[in-house]
Design a protein that fits this description.
2 copies of one chain form a homodimer. Chain A has a single domain, classed as Nuclear Transport Factor 2, Chain: A (Roll). In chain A, about 20% of the residues lie in helices and about 45% in strands. Chain A has 2 helices and 6 strands; from the N terminus they run H-E-E-H-E-E-E-E. A 6-stranded mixed β-sheet of chain A has the order 2-1-6-5-4-3, covered by helices on one side. The first copy, chain A, is globular and about 50 Å long.
Chain lengths: ~130, ~130
């Protein structure tokens, strides 16, 4: 039985704001958004589990990063969560030229009335 | 209880090949890949249901289209299906300059041992 969350757009926007703010400020703190079953595919390299995901993100070879979301589209999934497609640009360290990226997230509700990331796929876009 | 399909990568690749071959040959035939609950968000415009989705795709203002998949990443979802992130390029009609796009699909199994598209989000990427 499908459970469509009528607030999916609001949830998606709040999540995306929070995710990139946290990523750009202190990406180790993203651990709270993942669970043991969560998956991250970052530039076609995959890891599973909150700990492994945050280790992967923390090991990326830049000190400073700034994400700028260009577009955000979301749809509900049948679990009461949402699927999100972001396109945007990011700047790392002292680099002046932004890189285009796309990222998709699938959020599932947890048992505390919040949401966690089940699927996370990130890809740079070369034009 | 999660149902992870160990064949998710093969399913994702076969699906993506079939989807764009069908889209580029006769996009009205994509109707078999959608169900009444399926959602399409195409350039931030959303429709629901196989019939409405195919009408939307068929109404796009080009006669010829060729998709070229650049990257395909997939992860399993807990229903036995998969989530897919594609980046690629497309050429329409006599246009010589390809457009970059990104598209995410969520596939769910049907009761016949096949898969249908539950979520479909398409977005052009401007660099």
């Amino acid at each position: 039985m499908a459970n469509i969350n009528p607030q999916y757009e609001t949830i998606a926007k709040q999540f995306v704001d929070f995710y990139y703010q946290t990523f750009d400020a202190d990406r180790a703190k993203l651990i709270d958004l993942y669970r043991p079953e969560s998956m991250l595919t970052f530039e076609s390299s995959s890891v599973q589990g909150a700990q492994a995901i945050v280790e992967k993100l923390s090991s990326l070879p830049f000190q400073k990063v700034a994400h700028k979301v260009g577009t955000l589209d979301s749809q509900p999934n049948p679990t009461g969560g949402a699927i999100i497609l972001v396109t945007g640009q990011l700047l790392v360290d002292e680099e002046q030229n932004p890189m285009n990226y796309t990222q998709t997230f699938q959020l599932f509700p947890d048992d505390k009335g919040s949401f966690f990331i089940y699927n996370d796929v990130f890809k740079l876009v070369y034009g």
